[in-house]
Specification:
By secondary structure, this protein is α/β, with parallel strands linked by helices. The chain folds into two domains: 145 residues, NAD(P)-binding Rossmann-like Domain (Rossmann fold), CATH 3.40.50; 185 residues, Dihydrodipicolinate Reductase, domain 2, CATH 3.30.360. The chain has 14 helices and 15 strands. A seven-stranded mixed sheet has the order 12-11-7-10-9-8-15. The chain has a six-stranded parallel sheet with strand order 3-2-1-4-5-6, with helices on both faces. Strands 13-14 form a two-stranded antiparallel ribbon. The C terminus is likely disordered. The structure holds nicotinamide-adenine-dinucleotide (NAD). The site of nicotinamide-adenine-dinucleotide has 25 residues, from helix 1.
Length: 358
């Protein structure tokens, strides 16, 4: 069977996990090239895993005609440009979330994907490939909870990672709490509720570290969203979860409700001693979504081999970015934001000057 030859850009926390999955855990693909701005990262991975090609220039990697697909795990601000370049060079493309940090560039990518209909494009909304989130989707589609009309999501990063995050955020603009963290929940809400956002109101603050204020970002924030079908969404995101990585989702329908990850337990061990009854929590996204990261890459490779398109597409990237952008605008101005009006406004402005929220 043909093996899909992949080149990956970005060898950081997630890039390395994807690289390892491609190199060792998926039989019908090969990790053929690795690329990063840091030569030491390229050298280390190339040597450790015996990878044929290593690059510190993305453009040079795109000239490698042996490759079939490009995997993008660079910081969020580079995704759009790198996706467009890879599509133009004729490759299938997988990009990490978010699609982009600005609406006009996200729309440009949407146009670029449409202009290359024979190439596979997939966005890394891996929760859609997590077993529990997939099981919940089946139950909702089966009518087990009636018509879903409310979704509540918690996306909380461990406090133990806060220093690392602040270092990352100072070096690479992440888009802020709603575009960086809540974006997964916005995608899930659209997926489960089958509708788009209509209005958004978001608030947030810095409660333990002043650096978030300096970055014009929130350490913890919450958004309330009304969807076009009148369904309600409540999205809480934060960087200061004392007990660890906590991703929780509740969906209430007209005939019942379901919850995913209410207690983010690392395993089934419960310790009972003088401190009480204790269960350990996941320490981060790599541990909680290990299976989903592998399954999404398998799906991308199978789509290329079977000449079909993945269910997570560029439109999901554009719509979730729009909602993230609306929440960011609401957080910055204190106003309720009409999401569809914002979309029209952004499209009009994009034709004149790029609109950048700082
Ligand atoms: N799906 C998820 O659950 C999830 C989780 C974490 C991160 N992410 C996304 O993955 C992306 C990477 O995040 P991370 O945490 O791995 O970041 P990171 O900082 O750990 O790694 C970034 C990597 O990109 C390299 N790099 C930086 N600028 C570059 C450039 N211009 N060209 C090529 N390489 C460059 C860095 O040297 C590093 O290897 C981000 O967009 C982030 O939003 C997604």
């Amino acid at each position: 069977m043909k093996k899909i030859k992949v080149g990956i850009v970005g060898l950081g926390r997630l890039g390395r996990q994807h690289a390892e999955n491609i190199a060792f855990r998926i039989p019908n693909c090969e990790l053929t090239a690795v690329c990063s701005v840091l030569k030491e990262e390229v050298d280390e991975v190339q040597k450790q895993w015996n990878i044929p090609y290593g690059y510190t220039s993305y453009n040079e990697m795109l000239e490698n005609k042996e490759l079939d697909a490009i995997f993008i795990a660079s910081p969020s601000g580079f995704h759009c440009e790198q996706i467009k370049q890879a599509l133009t060079a004729g490759f299938h493309v997988f990009s990490e979330k978010p699609l982009g940090l600005y609406m006009e560039e996200a729309i440009e990518v949407q146009e670029a994907v449409s202009a290359h209909p024979n190439q596979v494009f997939m966005l890394g909304f891996m929760r859609r490939y997590d077993r529990s989130y997939m099981a919940a989707k089946k139950k909702i589609d089966n009518g087990d909870i009636g018509e879903p009309m409310f979704i509540r999501c918690y996306g909380l990063d461990p406090a133990a990672q806060m220093d690392n995050f602040l270092k990352f955020a100072k070096a690479n603009y992440s888009g802020g709490l709603f575009l960086d963290m809540s974006i997964h929940d916005f995608d899930l809400a659209r997926w489960y509720l089958g509708t788009e956002a209509k209005e958004a109101w978001a608030i947030g603050g810095s409660y333990s570290r002043s650096e978030f204020d300096e970055l014009n970002d929130a350490e913890t924030g919450a958004a309330m969203v009304r969807f076009e079908n009148n369904a309600i969404g409540i999205f809480v995101a934060g960087r200061n979860s004392a007990h660890g990585y906590h991703i929780e989702t509740e969906i209430i329908g007209t005939k019942g409700s379901l919850r995913i990850g209410t207690i983010p337990e690392r395993n089934q061990v419960v310790v009972m001693n003088e401190t009480g009854v204790v269960q350990e929590c996941y320490d981060g996204f790599l541990e909680r979504f290990e299976q989903a990261y592998l399954s999404e890459v398998e799906e991308f490779i199978n789509c290329i081999l079977e000449d079909r398109k993945p269910s997570v597409n560029v439109n999901d990237g554009v719509e979730s970015t729009l909602l993230g952008y609306a929440c960011k605008a609401s957080f910055e101005t204190g106003n309720l934001v009409n999401v569809q009006d914002l979309s029209i406004q952004l499209n009009e402005k994009a034709e004149d000057t790029p609109l950048l929220l700082t």
